[in-house]
Amino acid sequence: MSANWFDHAIASVAPRIAARRVMARQAFETLTRGYDGAARGRRTEGWRAPGSSADTEIGVAGALLRDRMRDLVRNNPHAAKAVAVLVNNIVGAGIMPRAASGNETLDRKVDALFERWTAECDADGQLDLYGLQTLICREMVEAGEVLVRRRLRRSSDGLPVPLQLQVLEADFLDATRSDAIGAGHIVQGIEFDALGKRRAYWLHSEHPGDAWGMLQGGLGSRPVPATEIAHVYEKQRTQVRGVPWGAPVIRSLRDLDDYEVAELVRKKTEACVTAIVFGDDEAQQGIAPAVVDADGNRVEQFEPGLIAYARGGKDIRFNQPSATGGYGEYKRASLHTISAGFRVPYELLTGDLSQVNYSSIRAGLVEFRRQIDAVQWQLFIPMFCAPVWRWFTEAAWAAGQIPSPIVPVEWSPPKFDAVDPYKDAMADLLAIRSGTMTLAQAIARQGHNPDAVLAEIAATNAKLDALGLVLDSDPRRVTKTGSAQTNDPATDPDADEPADGPSANAETEPAQADQQD
Fold this sequence. Notes:
Blueprint: H1 5-13, H2 15-32, H3 54-75, H4 77-90, E1 96-99, H5 104-118, H6 129-142, E2 145-152, E3 163-169, E4 179-181, E5 184-187, E6 190-192, E7 198-204, H7 211-215, E8 221-225, E9 229-233, H8 250-271, E10 273-278, H9 280-285, E11 291-292, E12 306-310, E13 315-318, H10 327-342, H11 346-350, H12 358-398, E14 409-412, H13 421-434, H14 439-445, H15 450-467, H16 509-516
Parallel strand pairs: 10-12
Antiparallel strand pairs: 1-14, 2-3, 2-9, 4-5, 5-6, 6-7, 7-8, 10-13, 11-12
Helix pairs in contact: 1-2, 3-4, 4-6, 4-10, 8-10
C-alpha cells in the first residue's frame, strides 16, 4: 500500500513515525483480507464452531451418537445397507495371515496351527476368527469403536493354542472416568502413563445397558492392562475414542424417515374418503349433513375406500387427491447425501444402476476401493489383526508349540470382484510378464495363500502326469490356441504371443461398452 499525502507530510518532520503508520495500515489490510470462512457477519450468525478438543467433543456426544446410530441401523434400511456394504468390503470372507519367517518348515507349522486355532478362538464359542472380524468391523462402523480382550486359557482346556478372544462393545468402557491418577491421567476410561502411553482400560464387568448387570451392580469398573486389549476405531483427529462412521448424516437419515412417514400419512388421508352422496336440502342449507354408511350407521371415522351417504342424498361427489411431485427427486438427493456421509458409492448404497455405464461404475469403484484398501492396511490390520497375531504367537510359544514368540506375518485381505474379470486377469498377466508383480503377489490379491496355491498346483500337475491326462488348461502341454506345446518359437508361433480374445484392443472396449449401455 502506498503512502498518502498525510504520510508524506509527517515524513518530512518525523520519517520513522510515518513509516510505522504505513506498516500498521498494511498489517490491518492483511487481516481484513483473511479467509471468508472466518468472517463474522449476518451470513455466519449462529454458526457455532467451538475450538474444543476431539476428546471433549466425543465425551459429550459419543454415547448419544452410538445410541442414535444403532437405532437407525435397526430401523432404517439405508443405514443398515451402508454398514453392510462397508463391512463386506473391508473384511469380506476374512483378512487372512500367513507366516513369513523365511523358514519354510516353521511357516507351514505356524500356518497349520493358526488354522486350527481360528475355529476355537471365540470366547463365546460361536464364531471363528473370520466371523469375529466381521462382528468387530461392524461394531467399528456402526458404534465407532470396539474392544477385543485377550483371554488366556489353561492347557487343560484342550484348545489348539491356550488363547481366546472376547469382543466387547464400546459401552463396556467407563466413560465417566476422566481424572488424574498418579503420574498419569484417565480420559474417558482409558488410562495413560506420564509419557502418554496407554496403560489400562477401565471396563465394566457387565454391559451398562443390561438389566441383569444393573441389578447385580455392574456399573462399577476396574482397570484391565492395555496389553490385554485391542481397541479398534478410526482416528480422524488425535482422539482416544471413536465415533460412528455415519455421524455426519444421522440427521439426514432421520429427516428422510420423517419425510417418508409424512408423505405416507398424507396419501392415506387423501385415500380415506372415496365419495360422499349429498342431498339437495342439505346442500341448499349450507349445513354439514349427517353422514352415514350403507347400513345407516353414523360415520365417525374415515377409512380408505369409504363411500359415505348424507341423509336423502342424491348428488355424489368424488374425492380428488392432489397430485404432488418431487418425491423421487428429493429421495434421490437425500440418498446421495447419505452415501457421501458414509463414504459409500450411491450405487452400492441403493442398488440403483440406472444412471451408470461400464466406465462410470468402474471409475466410481476405483476411489472406493482405494479408500477400503487404506482402511484395511492403516486401520484394521494394525489395530486388530497385528495384536491378535502377536497374542497367538506368544501363547503358542509359551505352550511350547513354536520355538519363538515372534514370527513375521503377511496379510491377505479379500479380493475385490472385478467389473470385467477378463480384463483384470489380463492386466495381472501383463504385470507378471513385465516383472512389475510376482505370481505370489497376484495370488495374494485374490485372497489366497500363495504357498498353498502353488503346492496345490504342483500336486494337481503330478496327478495329471501320473494318469497321463492332458487338459486344455495345462500351459506345460497346450498353447493358448489349443495346440500341443513344443516350446519352440519356430514351430510354435503362438508361444510368445499375447493371448487372443475379445479384448485384443483394450483401449476401445470401454467406449464400446458405453455404447452398448
